[in-house]
Every structure is written in C-alpha cells, then in structure tokens.
Amino acid sequence: MATLDRAECENRDLSDPLREFRYEFLLPEDVIYLDGNSLGARPKGAAERARAVIEDEWGTGLIRSWNTAGWFELPVTLGEKISGLIGGGAGTTVVTDSTSINLFKAASAALKLQAADAPERRVILTQRENFPSDIYMLQGLADQLGDGYEVRLVDDTEVTAGFPNTLTDEVALVVLTHVNYRTGRLFDLESTTAAVHAAGALVIWDLCHSAGALDIDLAGAGADMAVGCTYKFLNGGPGSPAFIWVSEAHQDRFAQPLSGWWSHENPFEMSPEYAPAAGSRRYLTGTQGILSMSVAELGLDIFGRVDMAAVRAKSLDLSDTFIELVDTRLSHHPIEVVTPREHEHRGSQVSIAHPEGFAVMSALIERGIIGDYREPSVLRFGLTPLYIGFAEVWDTVEALRDILDNRLWDAPQHKVRGAVT
Ligand SMILES: *Cc1c(COP(=O)(O)O)cnc(C)c1O
Q1: What order do you get walking across the sheet with 150-154 strand by strand?
Q2: Which CATH number fits domain 72-304: 2.60.40.10, 3.40.640.10, 1.20.58.220, 3.10.50.40?
Q3: Mean pLDDT by 10 residues, the chain (421 residues)
Q4: CA distance 136 to 412
Q5: What is the pLDDT of residue 334?
Q6: Structure confidence at residue 364 (pLDDT)
Q7: 349 contacts 383 by C-beta, under 8 angstroms
Q8: Residue tagged active-site, from 72, 163, 187, 231
Q9: How far apart are CA 355 and CA 175, in angstroms?
C-alpha cells in the first residue's frame, strides 16, 4: 500500500467514482464540512426551488397548488423516494412530521398490535445510549398508557450480543437506533431483527444516522417499522420533515393516536367519523410545511442517482483513512478512537475522545473545519461520501495535530459554549 500522505489522499480523490457529486452541493470555499451527519449540505438547486414554491406555486397558484403543484401528494411522493433507499417497498413510506413524532406514532401502533396479540407484554426496550429524544418519547408514551407499561434501557453490548439478558417474555417492543449518534457504532439490522422476533417482540428502527449513509434493506431484514430524518445524510435542509415506514405485514392494522385528517380515507368528506386511509397515508396527521418538504425533495433526487453500495464503500475508505491518520499522526496525544474499528460495526462517522474535546473542536471550527462535540469529551466527524474527499480528511487530521501540538485549544474563546454544540 502507498504511504499515506497528502499526495496519496489526492490520488484517492482522483479515482473516486462519486467525485462528481460534490458539485451537486454548495459549500463555502474555505470550509471543510464534517457535520453532514447533523445537518446535511445544501443542494445546489435549493434556493431556486424555494423561490419557485414561494413565487409560482404559492404566489400565483395559491390554493390551487394543493392539486396543481402536487402539494397534497408530497408526503407520499417523497416517501416513495426514501423507500428506494431503505428497502421499504412501494407504498410503505411517507415523509411527514419529525422523527420524534413519528416514533411516537410507530411505537403506539406497535404496542397496540401487541396488546391485541400478546397483552401481557408491556415492556419497551431501547438503548441507554440512544439519542435522548427517542428515550424521552418512549417514556412519555409509557406514562400516557400507564397500566404497567415501562421503558427499560439496555447497553449497546447487550444489543450487539443479541440480547442474552434482557429480551424476556415481558418485552413487547424493541426500539433501536441503527447507528449510535455519538460513537458511530452500527448494529446489524438483519440478525438483531431476527433475535427480537424470536423472542416474540416487535422492532422499530431509527435510521437517523444511517439513511443516506448505508445500504439498508428493511423489508429484506423483516423489520416491523422504521423512522428517520431527512436533514442529516439526506440533505433535506434545517428541520426538514422526517419519514416513517411500516412493513406491508402491519400496514392494514397500523392504528396511531395522532389520527388527524390527513390520515383519513377521505379527508374532504369532512365526516365526524374517523376512518383510516388505506396505505401509507394512514401514518400522516395534519397539514405539512410545503416549503420545507419541497426543498427536501432535492436531496432525495440526488440520492436517486447514487449507487448506495459505492457510498458505503467510500464511507468506509474515508473512515479507515481518518482512523489510520489519527493512529499514526496523533499517537503522542491522549486521544481515543471511540468508533468501532470493525467495518461491520461502523456507521459513517469517526468519533474521537480527548479530555479537552470541546475546546479542541472549537479551535478546529475557528479555522473552518466543522465537526461537532458531544458529551462527554467526544469530537464527532461525519463522513458524507457525496461531498467529502480524502484530502479533506488529511487536512483535518493535520489541523488537529497543529492544535494539539501547540495547545491552540487552550484559549478563552474556546471555552465558551453556545446553546447548540
Ligand atoms: C437526529 C435524531 C433525532 C432527531 O429527532 P427530531 O424529532 O428531528 O428532533 C431523533 N433520533 C435520532 C436517533 C437522531 O439521531
């Protein structure tokens, strides 16, 4: 193997089959953007699309645009595009609401299925290290249901081992985030789903940190339901709506508590009687933000032209390169690579821990290298294969080396925290 230096990184960029996709995004010239796992980059056409929605569809079309501009169909139109990326199958996915809200709907519906089939099961398992909103939503749901429903937290090691200790006959539902947001640990969709099913429980996957980063086959894995967001790897824009997927097997019995008019079989009948729509519209609630949804479509359309196997291959090359450079060039500093080194356990980010993590990240951001920081002491670098290259990984690790060697993080401006880290 060639020596890993900047020239070799440039060579890897030159032979990168995804290189051209970088030009689909607008990023500032002087920035290396390693936070696309938190807020994806802006697709080139975003401003033009927003302008067209405001001036033409809203300004001129006015209310007619619900029909003539396809507004009413957007949750399904975009859902079909996501479905292609997550192996959902036709008619199973919609884009709507936020991940937190969709998780509440999916978990409610899953518990209702279990209440009919196995009413003694009242426990929800989820990862202790899950993104906190997922845990909070499940706790809120369990409180709302009362009646013995409870959330139990399990360690990531327990999940990876196939739940040797916790998947008892009290468990109704297991909610798992596919890639740990902090460490980047990836859980195996297929074998984990099989383990949950073998114990008589249902599984909901949260794909926030894997949709658009990995090849996913929900239907092939036999999963029950899934949720995820579009503003991270899918580049939908700040606060763009999330998605919800329900397997064909459960679709007809999917009953959710947020049963607003958009989930009705005939919303404009204005009937006082609720009847759920057939198909994926039954996961909806009410009117959606059309501006945000319209812009989110651009990110999905880019993915429509991408080979996800190539994305995954480049993602692993990028993270291997990052880890190798940290190992070889930063070994004289107290740095620990938190992200698993085995490919089968790694998502699309590299997280490293340093005792002064917050200040170090602040110093990096000051020079235009944007990652983020998560408690405790973790520097996170999202690797988005569509617009990040190998030379940028090299430059990032070299900047880190300079900051650490010269203690550039040890300055007052790097100790001040904003509301969002
Ligand atoms: C980003 C993320 C969310 C965000 O939820 P919102 O409702 O969009 O705020 C939820 N769960 C996981 C696992 C995430 O990574």
Answers
A1: 93-96, 242-246, 225-228, 202-206, 171-177, 123-127, 150-154
A2: 3.40.640.10
A3: 90 97 97 98 98 98 98 98 98 98 98 98 98 98 98 98 98 98 98 98 98 97 98 98 98 97 97 97 98 98 97 98 98 97 98 97 97 95 98 98 98 90 78
A4: 35
A5: 97
A6: 98
A7: yes
A8: 231
A9: 32
Overall fold of domain 6-42+307-414? Aspartate Aminotransferase, domain 1 (3.90.1150)
**Distances from the Cα of 224 to the Cα of 7, 252, 268, 320, 325, angstroms:** 47, 13, 31, 32, 40
- pLDDT number for residue 421: 78
Please tell me the distance between residue 420's alpha carbon and the centre of ligand 1 in angstroms: 14
Q: Which residues are annotated as part of the binding site for pyridoxal 5'-phosphate?
A: 99-100, 131-134, 177, 206, 209, 231, 261, 287
How many CB atoms lie under 10 A from the CB of residue 70?
Answer: 14
What's the 127 CA to ligand 1 centre distance in angstroms? 14
Question: Which entry of 35, 206, 224, 372 is annotated as an active-site residue?
Answer: 206
pLDDT score at 348: 98
Report pTM.
0.98
* AA identity, residue 40: G
- For ligand 1, say whether the CB of 294 is within 6 Å of any of its atoms: no
181 lines ligand 1 (CB under 6 A): yes
CB atoms within 10 A of CB 162: 15
Ligand 1 pocket member 354 (CB < 6 A): no
Which pLDDT belongs to residue 401?
98
Cis peptide before 376 (omega within 30 of 0): yes
Both tokens of 172, joined, read: 């109704």
Whether ligand 1 lies within 6 angstroms of the CB of 243 is answered as no
Query: What's the pLDDT score for residue 1?
Result: 59
